[in-house]
Amino acid sequence: MIARRTALGLLAGGALAPRFARAQQQSRVMRVAVAGSAFATLDEMAEAGHPYYAALVRELRRLGWVEGRNLRLDRWPLGNRAIAEYAPVAKQIAGTEPDAIFAAGRLPALALKASSSSIPIIFVASTPVESGLAKSLDQPGRNATGVSQDASPEFLQMRLQLLKEITGGASKFAYLGRGETLADQLDRQVIASKALGVRLFGVEISETPNETELRTALSQAADLRAQALLLATAQLTSPRMARMMADWAYQARLPVMCAQRELVQAGVLMSYDADALDLYREAARYLDRVLRGAKPAEMPIQLPSRFTCVVNLRTARALDLEVSSTMRGFVTDYVE
């Protein structure tokens, strides 16, 4: 009888062990390093600051992770910088040995992955497979996974279709994209562009263009006699660069489709892209999983499922363009 009770006790203890381990894990304060090009200052890394950061923190709280109780967030505002400049900071972040890292942006994520092969990294980034962040969407491999900013071919076709619709049937578009991936980006849109009767001409622009580079790229687009412009890069985040893009587009009377609401607020015609707030909420859900013991290598990279379309009505009027009844069904917001 004693032996049987002992065996039952061992069995019960074995069954309770994983539950006890999870409870013990959740009782201690977990530390997450939050870093990325989306955040330029510490002031932005607050709920009252950058909306992306607020979306991340609020979703973590909804999932039970509360700062000061069971969660500590180490904030690392990186802003836009050359790729080589991320490496020293990434090593510093990895050296603090957090329980997990959240990386906003492809270049910071690459630098952080190169700095640690063991710390779980959750990212929101573009072209994760093409850039080497992951082996594939289904099996990212090693310690990094997250949410891709890239969408399906149907999304790419919708961008072209909306731009063609608002321009009244324009058919010659200049496409500004990163030099190292420009050919691949154009190839992905060949089928969609042909189906819509649109010709795409590629114009190279660097990952983090300065003012001179941006002016040069825009001049090339003008030389191509483009009727509209698609801006692929998501690096024009400074107010000055956004204003420059908007002023040039107005002077050239060129409708511009971009991926950022901030550019539309600065005066660019329109944006159509994945819902950024939703991407950060999804990243928070992935952080929740790794903090509870899940392995990034076993977590497929998520693709966007919600999209936003923002139109600057003042710019539309200045370019003598109208938002058709067809387009109104896709527009989620207007700015003046």
Characteristic terms for this protein:
2 domains; 336 residues; Rossmann fold; single chain; alpha/beta
Would you mind describing this structure in some detail?
α2 packs across α11 and α3 crosses α4. The strands form two sheets. The chain has a seven-stranded mixed β-sheet, sandwiched between helices. A five-stranded parallel β-sheet has the order 2-1-3-4-5, sandwiched between helices. The protein contains 13 helices and twelve strands.
Give the low-pLDDT segments. 1-25
> Could you describe the largest sheet, including whether it forms a barrel?
7 strands, mixed
Reported CATH architecture of the largest domain: 3-Layer(aba) Sandwich
H/E element sequence: HEHEHEHEEHEHHEHEHEHEHEHHE
Taken together, the total number of domains comes to 2
User: From the alpha-carbon coordinates, what is the Rg to the nearest angstrom?
Assistant: 23 Å
**Which geometry do the CA atoms define?**
elongated
With strands numbered from the N-terminus, the spatial order across the biggest sheet is 7-6-8-9-10-11-12
* Helix-and-strand structural type: alpha/beta
Separate helix tally: 13
Strands, total number: 12
CATH superfamily heading of the largest domain: Response regulator
Cα separation of the termini: 81 Å
Q: What is the mean predicted local confidence, pLDDT?
A: 86
Indicate the CATH class of the largest domain.
Alpha Beta
CATH topology of the largest domain: Rossmann fold
